[in-house]
Write a structure and sequence with these properties.
single chain, 582 residues, alpha/beta, Nitrilase/N-carbamoyl-D-aminoacid amidohydrolase, Rossmann fold, six-stranded mixed beta sheet, 18 helices, 36% helix
Length: 582
């Protein structure tokens, strides 16, 4: 069987343009002998469904598009479509074959909800993972990491499993980078556990607040990489699913070394470019306030939009340690800039507000998008209700400041447009703590606490026990809670971790506060490993085989098991349960 993956970016086109591009891809795939061409989840209508009021109308148009495509494509095609089913987004897959467009999971795209007047047995059948008969073998479809876990656990008779992932790129989930991070991701192990070919199909482009990295790949049953598409680029990948052993076996490719910082840089540039374009603008304005994040944002915007489309307001006071650096930066980037007028009273807060007003006037004059330089650390710990904060879009709002620093340093190795970057006192959140480490080490510790709590889901006691610093953990989490109200007005940001601060929101008025309590240490887990910012629940691969000697179920083991059950219950199709009624 020869399989193809059409890794195309359709963010810039309407439905008619998307239809033409899909037909072109099918023609190109057929000319290369492809038996089954697979399109990514975001191809037809993005990774998120439309509002209920527009859902039926859009799905009717989508049915028309797929019907026309079915009559012209020269090879079998699988086209995912995201729709709403009983208020939950689900991925439908339509098979284009022999002039017909056949939905494989839930029935007609624009028809009545499958959940109306259906039996439990009908629902279980619809929610099962479909199998497609193709020339030379069968392909079973999967839609999540949990689907792969189930197939590995219970087995599959299919020759290949095709993962149609709707996960956007996340820095704390290496598997979201698909083939670009294969040496660190889960998929080689999945292929060997499945005993089948694994085809990972990735979208590419910025869709709303999500950025998709591409890097579609094909992995043999032996866990070897056979084919991979480039990251953040369009591509038509073609691979032969031949025998994994014997004289017809294919030689595996050596996975490339994954660089998470470089991936994050590319995701930010792509996300800014697509957001500005999608809102119908061509220019962006931003305030250079002397923070590392504001300098990095200026460089990112220039890379994304070009120097003639970026405009800066120099908002740092003359006494700021980086004030002179900012003038050198705008000169190096060749972007237009103007100085903010300080408030006559000399008050720092009033001057900051005045700079925001000037920024708004400049954006109105140019018809430009206002970019906020708030990073995730700032949104968590530094927003204030009594300060004017302006921004249509915060590209760095889901990137911790220590990662901002790393990405800025990486960018300087390409061309040193920014000055050598060191963490200054002005880069540290005010937590009222005596400084016990160097500034950069303290910033890293603060971000580890935040990530452990926000993405990792750990409470105060667990983080304090792991880090051995009750005072720091308490100060960070208290500050995080105290800024809940200020975050209510934060601008949209790119989702680049497995949990944004918008998803984290705490209920206002909650009387309960977490406190330090004694907990049982994790068995066999090192302190640094426990709170690595790459060890989020989404990226952690669930264990399927208990190891010898694991005869003690401590508090943490119970919590992890409950967390897995919670994740399962929170899936988009919660009516499906892989357990008996007992």
């Amino acid at each position: 069987m020869r399989i193809g993956i059409a890794q195309i970016d359709t963010t810039a086109g309407d439905l008619a343009q998307t239809e033409r591009r899909m037909a072109t891809q099918a023609d190109a795939a057929s000319s290369r002998g492809v038996d089954l061409l697979v399109f990514p989840v975001a191809t037809l209508c993005g990774p998120m469904p439309l509002d209920f009021g527009m859902q039926t109308a859009f799905m009717r148009d989508a049915e028309d598009v797929l019907g026309r495509l079915a009559s012209v494509v020269p090879c079998d095609c699988l086209v995912p479509v995201v729709k709403v089913l009983d208020e939950f987004p689900v991925v439908e897959v339509v098979l284009l074959r022999g002039g017909a467009a056949t939905p494989l999971r839930f029935g007609p795209l624009s028809g009545p909800s499958l959940r109306e007047d259906t039996t439990d047995e009908t629902m279980r059948t619809a929610l099962a993972l479909p199998v497609v008969e193709a020339k030379g073998g069968n392909v079973q479809l999967a839609f999540s990491y949990e689907d792969l876990d189930d197939l590995c656990e219970y087995g599959t008779d299919a020759d290949a499993v095709c993962l149609l992932s709707d996960y956007g790129f996340a820095v704390d989930d290496v598997s979201s980078a698909l083939g670009a991070a294969l040496a660190e991701a889960r998929f080689s192990d999945d292929a060997t556990d499945l005993g089948a070919w694994l085809v990972c199909v990735g979208s590419v482009g910025g869709y709303g607040m999500q950025v998709f990295a591409g890097s579609s790949c094909v992995i043999s049953p032996a866990g070897q990489l056979v084919a991979v598409s480039p990251a953040f680029e369009e591509d038509l990948l073609v691979a032969d699913l031949q025998a994994a052993t014997g004289p017809d076996a294919q030689d595996g490719l050596e996975p490339e070394l994954y660089d998470g910082r470089a991936h994050l840089w590319q995701a930010l540039v792509l996300g800014i470019r697509d957001f500005v374009r999608d809102v119908g603008k061509s220019d962006a304005v931003l305030a250079l306030d002397g923070s590392i994040a504001s300098m990095l944002l200026a460089v990112l915007a220039t890379d994304a939009l070009g120097p003639t489309h970026v405009h800066a307001v120099l908002a740092a006071a003359e006494a700021h340690p980086r004030a002179r650096m900012l003038e050198g930066l705008v000169s190096s980037l060749r972007i237009a800039s103007s100085k903010a007028y300080p408030d006559a009273s000399g008050d720092e807060a009033a001057s900051s507000d005045a700079a925001m007003v000037q920024l708004a006037a400049r954006a109105r004059e140019l018809g430009a998008v206002v970019l906020s330089s708030h990073d995730k650390t700032a949104l968590a710990l530094e927003l204030r209700e009594d300060r004017l904060s302006l921004g249509s879009f915060a590209p760095l709002g889901d990137v911790y400041r220590s990662d901002v620093l790393d990405v800025a340093r990486l960018r300087n190795t390409v061309s040193p447009v920014m000055p050598p970057l060191e963490v200054l006192d002005c880069d540290l959140p005010s937590l009222g703590l005596a400084q016990r480490w160097g500034r950069e080490r303290l910033l890293q510790q603060v971000d580890v606490v935040l990530a452990s709590h926000v993405e990792g889901g750990w409470g105060l006691s667990e983080i304090a026990m792991s880090m051995g610093d009750d005072e720091l953990v308490s100060a960070v989490l208290s500050c995080l809670r105290n800024h809940d109200l200020a975050r209510a007005s934060m601008p949209p940001c790119l989702a680049l971790t497995t949990r944004t601060l918008d998803e984290y929101r705490m209920p206002l008025g909650l009387a309960w506060r977490d406190h330090r309590r004694e907990v049982t240490p994790l068995v066999g887990t090192q302190r640094e490993e426990t709170h690595s910012r790459e060890a989020s629940p989404k990226s952690r691969r669930t264990s399927r085989q208990p190891s010898a000697g694991d005869d003690v179920m401590d508090e943490y083991a119970v919590r992890e098991a409950l967390g897995l059950l919670h994740d399962l219950a929170s899936e988009r199709t919660p009516e499906w349960h892989p357990f008996s009624e007992n």
